[in-house]
Write a structure and sequence with these properties.
By secondary structure, the chain is an all-alpha fold. The chain has 33 helices and no strands.
Length: 574
């Protein structure tokens, strides 16, 4: 019986396949459920079933799928050959009735589990029904039956891409190994590797694609961007140059090439590309702003470029007068050439136009802090925290300004808030520890410094401040000396660090050694009243009372309210 059905199927094969790509039929279908278990099949039954199967095949070839289903279902009354189940599955699939299609396809597979075409239809019905796990299982079975089945491997790889990208890549690579490079397969390999951050493998796939299509400009651009991710800048430059020869007006490509030059520290070449872009009619605001930022970054290395950078941003300001983004940059650049009044104007405009911009508030406040105008700094930061209440920098600067203004309790409140917002920032922790120390809250101060050192045991500022705090209390002097030495190793010309180490030596009674470090701190210039007083104390200990009084008086000039220092000068001794 199977041989006879095979012969009939072969006779109508072309008609049978053609029917799968036609339009739908119109007749009603009475049932979608598989027929009940069949009685014993006679030759007459087989003949009737064969005729109905042929009739159905002819209708299917015309796209009359509903009518064909009726014939196939009638055929099942006489014979349950898997070819009939298979035909029904295909017709239901064409009518997008996937539940019925999968039922009949499963019956076909159940009768002949090694027929690849049956499993292919079953897998496709699962895909269309959104049952991807079941579809994947069928494709795996197909590949066990036919390991060279490229379509099955490709479809399975597509299913696996999101949940199992490594398996998908293995399948795609297997396809390439069997049948050679294929554009569609290589594209999938490149995209998957890129998503997995395997940019070297992505580049290999793109390079193979370029061999298949050497003139594809979009592909060259994609490959250049991949080279950039790999920091293979010379290859990226070569590729971008080739593309720009064919498309010289492409602003984005030229901007990318400029970025490559910047990565190679070739400012001359980058500047040439940026100048060309700025003169382009197709220059868009985002690209213009990026160019300004490139100039801004370069001014950190070469301050002579500041006027040119200002020119780029001012041109942007002229072209897009309602855009506030250049204001902070223009403010910082004008500060760089000591035009603080213009800088203040830009920072103020930025805070007024975009009061959510924490950078603008920070720069405006820092400008006054840098001028030691702590009252104005406090005023600006107090206003800023209303608009950017979650920016720890606002509270950090506010706390430091209160500290410098001698308002330690206010400093503590602000810095504690900064620490809540950013509990790992070492500048915040160092400043908070210093404020606790000034308030004689030594347990809190020590705890804060220890917390900071757990984050970074080598942070110089924390090491110095903690060491000084211990030395002032005359405790743990050996540990304080070790910490102070470490801070000096990081910055040997920092006057505060020199004074701290010298003061620890003083507390240890090593006055001659202390004199070397504290005198060096003063010689560096702009010594504080505390450092000057320390030097006076050391001179007194080494027996030079004249110089001791000299430096005590210098300290008093900077801190005229220091009553203890006045008494020291009056009695001429410690």
């Amino acid at each position: 019986m199977r041989m006879r059905w095979t012969a009939v199927c072969a006779a109508v094969l072309m008609v049978f396949i053609a029917g799968c790509s036609s339009g739908g039929g119109t007749a009603a279908v009475t049932t979608e459920a598989p027929a009940p278990k069949q009685r014993a099949v006679t030759e007459q039954d087989r003949s009737a079933a064969m005729q109905l199967f042929i009739d159905g095949s002819l209708k299917e070839s015309k796209g009359e799928f509903a009518e064909a289903i009726l014939d196939y279902q009638d055929a099942l009354r006489y014979d349950h050959d898997p070819a009939i189940f298979f035909a029904l599955a295909k017709c239901y699939h064409q009518l997008r009735r996937y539940a019925a299609a999968s039922e009949y396809a499963a019956l076909a597979v159940q009768h002949e589990p090694n027929r690849v075409e049956y499993r292919e239809v079953l897998a496709q019905t699962y895909i269309n029904a959104g049952k991807l796990d079941k579809a994947a299982a069928e494709f795996r079975m197909i590949l066990m039956l036919d390991p060279k089945n490229v379509n099955a491997a490709f479809t399975l790889a597509k299913i696996m891409e999101r949940a199992h990208p490594a398996e998908a890549l293995e399948l795609y690579n297997g396809i390439v190994a069997r049948q050679g490079p294929s554009w569609e397969v290589l594209l999938q390999i490149a995209q998957l590797n890129s998503a997995l951050q395997r940019h070297d493998k992505a580049a290999e796939a793109l390079e193979q694609m370029l061999q298949l299509d050497p003139s594809n400009l979009a592909l060259k651009q994609n490959l250049a961007e991949t080279y950039i991710r790999l920091k293979r800048f010379e290859q990226a430059r070569t590729m971008l140059t080739e593309v720009l020869e064919q498309n010289p007006d492409n602003v984005m490509l030229r901007s990318t090439l400029a970025d490559v030059y910047l990565q190679q520290n070739d400012w001359t070449s980058a500047r040439k590309e940026l100048t060309t872009i700025l003169a382009s009619d197709s220059l868009d605001p985002d690209t213009h702003l990026r160019i300004g930022m490139a100039y801004y970054a370069q001014t950190i290395k070469d301050t002579l470029l500041i006027p040119e950078a200002i020119g780029v941003f001012r041109q942007y300001e002229k072209n897009y007068p309602t855009d506030t983004r250049p204001f902070v940059f223009l403010g910082v650049l004008h500060r760089g050439i000591r035009k603080d009044s213009i800088a203040e104007t830009y920072f103020t405009r930025a805070t007024q136009a975009a009061n959510w911009n924490g950078d603008a508030w920070w720069q405006l406040g820092w400008m006054y802090f840098d001028k030691q105008d702590y009252r104005e700094t406090i005023s600006i930061m107090t206003k800023a925290k209303q608009y950017v209440p979650d920016d720890f920098r606002i509270f950090l600067l506010l706390g430091i300004a209160h500290n410098r203004a001698g308002q330690q309790q206010d400093s503590r409140v602000a810095l504690e808030r900064a620490a809540e917002l950013n509990p790992t920032d070492l500048n915040v922790l160092s400043s908070l520890g210093l404020t606790y120390d000034a308030l004689k809250m030594h347990a809190e101060s020590d705890s804060t410094y220890e917390r900071a050192l757990r984050i970074d045991p080598d942070y110089p500022l924390v090491l110095n401040n903690y060491a000084y705090s211990l030395s002032e209390r005359g405790i743990q002097l050996s540990r304080a000396a070790t910490m102070s030495k470490a801070s000096l190793a990081a910055d040997s010309t920092n006057s505060s660090y020199l004074d701290t180490y010298g003061w620890i030596l003083y507390q240890q009674g090593k006055y001659d050694e202390a004199l070397v470090y504290i005198r060096r701190a003063v010689e560096l210039g702009d010594a504080s009243a505390v450092v000057l007083e320390h030097l006076g104390d050391v001179y007194y200990r080494v027996g030079d009372r004249t110089r001791a009084e000299e430096y005590w008086k210098k300290a008093l000039e900077k801190d005229a309210k220091n009553a203890a220092l006045k008494e020291k000068i009056a009695r001429g001794s410690l």
